[in-house]
Design brief:
By secondary structure, this protein is α+β, with helices and mostly antiparallel strands. The chain is built from 29 helices and 19 strands. A 7-stranded mixed sheet has the order 3-2-1-4-8-6-9, sandwiched between helices. It catalyses: [(1->4)-beta-D-glucosyl](n) + UDP-alpha-D-glucose = [(1->4)-beta-D-glucosyl](n+1) + UDP + H(+).
């Protein structure tokens, strides 16, 4: 097969070489020359080839490429300079290299004399500041600023006067026109200030960074609105204003996002009464529809193990699948099993039906794959005691399995996942403004307020957020606790992930249409802002598609959609983008790395455009879809169905780049800067699309029970009665990984015992050895009774500290590192596309090969 493919490739190469007048032994350089210049007549000098050879030789000497003929090292040297020779340790080191012996020009000598004192002064100040910053008590300074602000706030009329003065100063700063040099000077000053503030801990420096980012953003918006929209033709006006509207969406989301995350509340749990007799009654709802029993069992076991008086808790499995196996299991473990005659209103209807068949003061709701820790109720219920107006307490959704991005790019627990930003920062920011959303699971709701609003909202497919909105309109409070108290399974495939996001996007568009938070009674200003920003987020589909195709307007059709020079665009766009990225890295660094948002949007944009648009036009369109969990992927494969829109956008941008090369080389328009700018834009689009294609290459996953790291003491019980103290390395629903202090002669299939503890209690489990390599032993739990399964969950998933240190090893964001991650993803995406294409070609040739009789 491969020999036939190589033969065809070689035949095509020779045919193309003959058409270009190339000898069979021509090198890559001559091939590149002939792609742009015709072969010369016989006997004439081949000037293009000679010039290319001269340039290549000069570049090789300049880039230290002597003796290296590979394409890879040449490309590498274009971006990374050659390594300097290593100095002996005793040699003196300098910041600047030693001056060369050759005579430099008078201009160079004058520049050296002029700039040397400036360089020394700046270097001295940098070292002094770097030594001084760690010694400053930033937290104490923050408290002093807070006290000063409180004193100033007591002066009648001073706050409005200061706000008015700040508004006037800001208006002057972002509306004052500047030439390119002045704009770049402002950028340099702001950049230095932001980079210094980035190293200072505390919230005040973060607010200062936000203010500087808003300054550069508003300068760009003012310049963009007043200087660049004087377009010529009707087509340019239409496309230019589409681009301006897409940019306007990003500006709005940026500004609202700063307001939403400016001051995360970081709420602490409230204590419960010392006497458990005063604790309220709680009903635990576990809705399920088509999930297998193996997925739901751990959640039921963990719910039974929560630390709450037995006479004050009732557990209900709400089965819309009406399966006998579930009923039988619930009877065995002693929990309530509820069904209904139909599945009207999906999950919301299921919960509302159960409200009439239960009577607890509060309802704790868990998706059927979300396994709560035993401390869940003790951590959340104190808030209701402390605040009688509190109607809902939400905790994060945490996932112990990788989502498609993490699995397909192998970034699990190394890079924050897509949901980390919302549950780590945005919800905490919402909590400051009493705007915490109900997220459908891992939450407790007070029964009386819920019944007052008619139960869980059924008008949209995102019933959770709509329910919280109704509670807030009635004047109730909500709370968010950032500590993870339950964990579940992430979506298994990109198609499932996209389906889930489509439902979220459709539901948010429905709420925005039928119960818009900007209007109506009951909400405060910042509650309206938080809800509106959450809903606007899911309208990014059209703006993202505009950004992914807009370079084609100039490269392919020659349209000027921004009426200004490329230099001015760079002078205003770069400050806005650079400062905004540095600021967001400071705000979101623990929860999302730089440039990953663009990747997520590029993957999902195509698929959410139609659902959000249709839901906005007619909110009744669309239905609830259940996200599949607990599956497996037998083999690696590229999901061609999901990839189609990415391939279309990829082809369009490649065509645009090719035409851009033609505009630079063959038919110059006199605007090389504009051509290069749009080519760079198209290249960034190709990077994002490469990452989108890469994540569509599903990685093999045959393990259903995911292993979770855990290091706690354990005891190994050998058949001869010997006990060996050891430690766990990881666990899953069906087994453990153990690290022994010494190497033991354990054989695969050998029966042993394992002891784990929960607090002062110790539990024994029968197990079978599955592997033994260099003191690392894997065991499988055998023939566990229902009680033993519950005890295993208590010792693993249900531990109060099960997820406390989950993200401790994740590095915080550095913008350039985030860019490197995205570049690597784009590169991997194209490699995976090439592999998939080669596989497809091989399959095609294999099917067409004639069968031998």
């Amino acid at each position: 097969m491969s020999r036939l493919l190589n033969t065809r490739i070689e035949r095509a190469r020779r045919a193309l070489a003959a058409r270009l007048g190339l000898p069979a032994s021509a090198g890559l350089l001559l091939w590149l020359v002939r792609l742009f210049f015709r072969p010369v007549r016989e006997g004439a000098r081949d000037w293009p080839a000679l010039a290319a050879a001269w340039l290549a030789q000069g570049a090789a000497e300049r880039l230290d490429l002597a003796g290296r003929q590979g394409v890879g090292i040449r490309l590498w040297r274009l971006f990374v300079r050659p390594a300097r020779p290593r100095r002996p340790l005793a040699a003196p080191t300098r910041r600047r290299p030693a001056p060369v012996q050759a005579q430099s020009s008078p201009l160079r000598q004058w520049l050296d004399r002029t700039l040397e004192p400036v360089w020394r002064f700046a270097n001295r100040q940098r070292r002094r500041m770097a030594a001084r910053l760690p010694r400053i008590d930033w937290h104490g300074a923050g408290h002093r600023f807070a006290r000063i602000a409180a004193l100033l706030n007591r002066v009648r009329g001073l706050t409005p006067l200061m706000l008015l003065g700040a508004a006037v100063a800001g208006l002057l700063m972002f509306t004052t026109p500047l030439p390119i040099g002045g704009q770049l000077t402002v950028f340099a000053v702001v950049w230095v200030a932001v980079m210094l503030l980035r190293k200072v801990p505390g919230r005040f420096p973060t607010l200062m960074m936000m203010a500087l980012s808003l300054l550069m953003t508003l300068r760009y918006i003012w310049w963009r609105a007043t200087e660049t929209l004087d377009l010529m033709t009707p087509l340019e006006i239409v496309i230019g204003y589409l681009l301006f509207a897409a940019e306007g969406y990003t500006w709005l989301v940026l500004i609202l996002g700063y307001l939403q995350t400016a001051w995360p509340l970081a709420r602490r749990p409230k204590p419960l009464p010392a006497d458990p007799a005063q604790w309220p009654t709680v009903d635990v709802f576990i809705p399920t529809y088509n999930e297998p029993l193996s997925v739901v069992q751990p959640t039921i076991h963990a719910a039974r193990s929560m630390d709450w008086p037995a006479d004050k808790i009732n557990i209900y499995v709400l089965d819309d699948g009406r399966r006998p196996a579930f009923r039988e299991f619930c009877e065995q473990v002693g929990v309530h099993y509820l069904t209904r005659e139909d599945n009207r209103h999906a999950k919301a209807g299921n919960i509302n039906s159960a409200l009439g068949k239960s009577g607890g003061d509060y309802i704790a709701i868990f998706d059927c794959d979300h396994i709560p820790t035993r401390s869940f109720l003790q951590m959340t219920m104190g808030e209701f005691i402390a605040d009688p107006q509190c109607a809902m307490v939400q905790t994060p959704h945490h996932f112990f399995s990788p989502d498609p991005f993490e699995r397909n790019f192998d970034t699990f627990r190394r890079v924050p996942n897509e949901g980390s930003l919302f549950y780590g920062l945005i919800q905490d920011g919402n909590d400051l403004w009493n705007a915490t959303f109900f997220c459908g699971s891992c939450a407790v709701i007070k029964r009386a307020p819920l019944l007052e609003i008619g139960g869980i909202a059924v008008e949209t497919v995102t019933e959770d957020a709509h329910t919280a909105l109704k509670l807030h309109r009635r004047g109730y409070n909500t709370a968010y606790l950032r500590t993870v108290q339950a964990a579940g399974l992430a979506t298994e495939s990109l198609s499932s992930h996209i389906g889930q996001r489509i439902r979220w996007a459709r539901g948010m568009a429905q709420i925005f249409r039928i119960d818009n938070p900007l209007f109506g009674k009951g909400l405060k200003l910042f509650q309206r802002i938080c809800y509106s920003n959450a809903m606007l987020h899911f309208f990014y589909g059209i703006p993202r598609l505009i950004f992914l195709t807009m370079p084609l307007a100039y490269l392919v059709f020659g349209l000027h959609v921004i009426n200004t020079s490329a230099a001015l665009i760079a002078a205003y766009v770069l400050p806005y983008l650079v400062i905004a990225n540095i600021t967001n890295s400071r705000i979101q660094g623990k929860y999302r790395h730089s440039f990953w948002a663009e990747v997520y949007e590029s993957v999902l944009a195509w698929y959410i455009v139609l659902p959000t648009t249709l839901a906005f036009i007619d909110p009744k369109l669309g239905k609830f879809n259940v996200t599949a969990k607990g599956g497996r992927i037998e083999d690696d494969y590229l999901d061609w169905t999901i990839t189609r829109p990415y391939l279309v956008l990829l082809a369009l941008n490649v065509v645009g780049l090719a035409i851009g090369v033609g505009r630079l080389v063959f038919w110059s328009t006199g605007e090389p800067g504009t051509v290069v700018m749009n080519m760079v834009w198209a290249s960034v689009n190709l990077l994002m699309l490469g990452a989108a294609i890469g994540v569509a290459r599903e990685a093999r996953q045959i393990r259903i029970s995911h292993r979770i790291p855990m290091r706690v003491p354990a005891t190994l019980l050998l058949p001869d009665g010997t006990t060996v103290a050891c430690r766990t390395e990881n666990y899953s629903l069906g087994g453990l990984g153990l690290l022994l202090p010494v190497d033991l002669s354990l054989t695969e299939g050998q029966r042993i015992g394992v002891c784990l503890s929960r607090g002062a209690r110790e539990y024994h489990f029968a197990a079978t050895v599955t592997r033994n390599v260099n003191r690392h032993v894997g065991v499988r739990m055998d023939d566990l009774s229902i009680e033993a399964e519950t005890q295993l969950i208590q010792c693993t998933f249900g531990r109060a500290d099960a997820w406390v240190d989950w993200v401790d090893d994740q590095p915080e964001d550095v913008p350039l590192r985030g860019l490197k991650e995205v570049i690597e993803m784009g590169y991997q995406g194209y490699l995976r596309l090439y592999d998939a294409l080669m596989d497809a070609v091989e399959d095609l040739l294999r099917r067409r090969r004639p069968r031998r009789s």
